[in-house]
Please model this.
Amino acid sequence: MAEVKLFGNWGSPFSCRIEIALKLKGVEYEFIEEDVYNDNKSPLLLKYNPVHKKIPVLLHNGKPICESVVILEYIDETWEGPSILPKDPYERAMARFWTKFLEEKCFPPMKQASWSTGEEQEKAKEEATELLKILEGTLSGKKFFGGDSIGMVDIVANFIAHWFIILQEITGLELLTHEKFPKLGQWLDDYLSCSIIKETLPPKDKLTASFQARIQAATTSK
Amino acid sequence: MAEVKLFGSSGSPFSRRIEVALKLKGVEYEFIEEDIYNKKSPLLLKYNPVHKKVPVLLHNGKPICESLVILEYIDETWEGPSILPKDPYERAMARFWVKFLDEKCFPAMWQACWSIGEEQEKAKEEATEFLKILEGTLSGKKFFGGDSIGMVDIGANFIAYWFMLPQELAGFEVLTKEKFPKLNEWKNEYLNCSIIKENPPLKDKLTALFRARFQAVGAAK
Model:
C-alpha cells in the first residue's frame, strides 16, 4: 500500500500543483482520480475532506491534508529536496503574500474574463489586466517568481501558464500576450520548458476539448 | 527609531492578531494607528501598495502585509512561545483551520451581523453550520492550539470581540452558550489568558464603532 496518496482530478490545476511538488521532491505517490465535475465524489474523498468535500487531498501515512497551499507547505516541511519555499523568513513571507495575491485577486477575474460575456467580461478583463501588471512587476530581474528555480508562487501560477492560456486561445481573448506583458511572457516560456512542469501538466488537447464541451453545454443551456 | 513598527487600527481584528503575536513573543514595537475608514496615511499606501490595508508589519524597514503571512513571519523570526506547532502535520492542521476561519466563518459571521432580512437569516444559518464544525475541533482541547494559544486561537480573536459584541448589541443569538458550549468555554479561556487580559481591545471604542455602524446600516435601509 502506497504511503502517499493523492486524491485529485486530471483536469484540476489544484491537484496538478500537488503533483508538481511531489515530483520536485522525488516522492512516489498513488494518484486517485476523482470524478469531481460530475459530482461523483468517492466516499473516501468525503471521509478525508468532510469540511470542503474537494480535491486535492494528500494522504500521508493515513492522515489527510486538505487545501492545496496547505498541502504544498506540508510537502516542503516533510520531504528533502529542492525547496518550494525560500529559507529566509522575509522571502518566505513574500512568497506567501504573492501566492495569496494570485489565488484571491488574480484568478477570479481571469476566470470571469474567460467565461463571461459583454459588460461583465469587459469589467473582468480590466481588473485582470491591472492585476497582471502588478504581477509583471514582481518578475523584475528574475527568471521565475521563485528566483532561479521554480517555487511556491510558480507552482500556484500553473493556472496562468496552462489553463488560462488555453482558455484564451479558445475564446480569442487577448489579455496575457508577450507584447503587453513581456516578463510574464518570458516566464511562461521558461516555466513550460521545465521538465517537471512539462510532464505533469494535463495534455493540452484533452483540456481544450474539455473546455469546449463546457462552453457548449453553457451555451445550449441558455 | 523602533526596529519593529505595526501599522494597524484599534478597530481591526486583523491588526489585533499581530499585536497578540508580538506580545506573545515579547517583541517591542511601535503601533501606528491608521484611520482606515477615513484617511489612510501615505506611509501605509507606500508599504502596502497592492492592498492598501492594515495590518502592515515593518521590520528593519521591510514591510510584510496580510495578517496570516505576518503571523508566520513573526513565528519564524522571533524566539518565544510557538504560534504554530512544530510537527508538520499539526502545522498543516493549524493552517487549514485558520484558512477555514478566514474564508468561511468570518465572512458568514460578519454578514450575519451587518445584513438584514432574508440575507441575514441566510448568513445566520451559514454561520451556525460553520460554528458547529469549529465546535467539533475543540473536543478535549482547551484551546485550538492545545494547552496554550496558537495561530488558530489568535485568528479566532474576532469571535471573542468582533462577533460577540455586535451579537449582544443587535440582540441576535447565533453563538450562545447552549448551542456551542465548547466555543463558549474557549472564549472564556481565551479572554482569561494573561496576554489577552492585559491588552484587551478597547471595548468602549469598539462598542461605539459598532453602534455607529448599526445606525448607518439602519439609516441606509
Observations:
- Residues 140 and 183 of chain A are 8 Å apart (CA to CA).
